[in-house]
Every structure is written in structure tokens, then in C-alpha cells.
Amino acid sequence: MDADEIYRRLKDEFGEKVVSIEASAKDPFAVVEGDAIVELCTYLRDGDDIRCNVLTNQSGVDYKSEGYIEVVYHLYSYAYRHYAILKVRTPRDEAVVPTVETVWKAANWLEREIYDLLGVCFTGHSDLRRIMLPEDWVGHPLRKDFVEPTEYHGISTTRESLLR
Asked: Which residue in 103, 136, 99 sits closest to 114, CA to CA?
């Protein structure tokens, strides 16, 4: 089964919860409603002829000029050797998406990284806290409007260039 067929089945099964399908993209994907992500992922994992049993990657992208952050889910089926890519768009000023940790345990650390670097809150997550930066760090470094502080607890964050 190819990605286009998987997305058509999702659209047939979930209707308006599948916002759009980009079948002609280099890596075809479907944009889905954030509130339905757990339901759709469970369907893709458990469907007899789909069985996307692995979350190979989960990442986030800041589209500042469009006003949203996109959470991207890369799913793979070892049984059938096919993949699916789902995308959820959430407003930058209130970036909230339900966790898929209940579907794939691998989402735990991936969602923590997205939370830490982009500030997306994953509701229902079992341990949503920073994973790379200190707990008292201000801001999220992968946001397009992030300005790095010049120091952290009295330690300079600027480095002399070795290329001079």
C-alpha cells in the first residue's frame, strides 16, 4: 500500500479530521486536526493492512510568518514496508497537541525535545519537562524569534570565533 492510499483511507474513515492531503509532495503527507492525532495514530498502528507499528521520528517546525508550529510524525510499518507522514498545525501563541506517548513509547523523549526547543505542550504526557536545556532556561531556541541571552548565571554564552 502506498502513502496516497493510506491517506485516502484516513480521509474515508475520519472525514474532516484529515484537513488536507499532499500526495504530490516529495514525501507525501496528510495534515490532520490536532485533537484527532491519537485516534488517527492508533488507527494507523492497529489497522490489519496498515500496521504502522513504529514512530520513526517526531519533530517540530516553526512557521513564524504563518503563525503556527507544525508537529511532524513519521510512521513506518515493518510488516508491510510502507510509511505515513502526519502533520499537526498548532498556533504559536498557544502551542498544544495531545501526546502520542500512549500509542508509541518512543514519543516520550521526542515530545520532550519538541517541548524544550519549540515550546509545544503535549497534553497527557507522563513527564513533560526539559530534556536538553536547564529547567530555568528562558525561551525555546528553535523558535524563529528566539534571542539568545548574552549570559546564563553569570557565564557568557558568546564564544570567540576560531575562524579569525
From this structure: 99
The reported pTM is 0.93
Residues contacting 13, CB < 8 A, separation 6+: 43
Domains and CATH numbers, the chain: 3-156 (3.30.460.80)
pLDDT digits (tens, 9 = 90+) for 62-83: 999 999 999 999 999 999 999 9
Grid cell at residue 153:
548565571
- Give pLDDT tens digits for 86-102: 999 999 999 999 999 99
Nearest to 62 by CA among 117, 129, 121: 117
Residue type, 23: A
- Please report, as a single letter, which amino acid is at residue 26: K
What SS3 state is found at 39?
A: helix
Q: How many CB atoms lie within 10 A of CB 39?
A: 16
CA distance 135 to 146: 17
In which residue are the cell numbers 510488516 written?
79
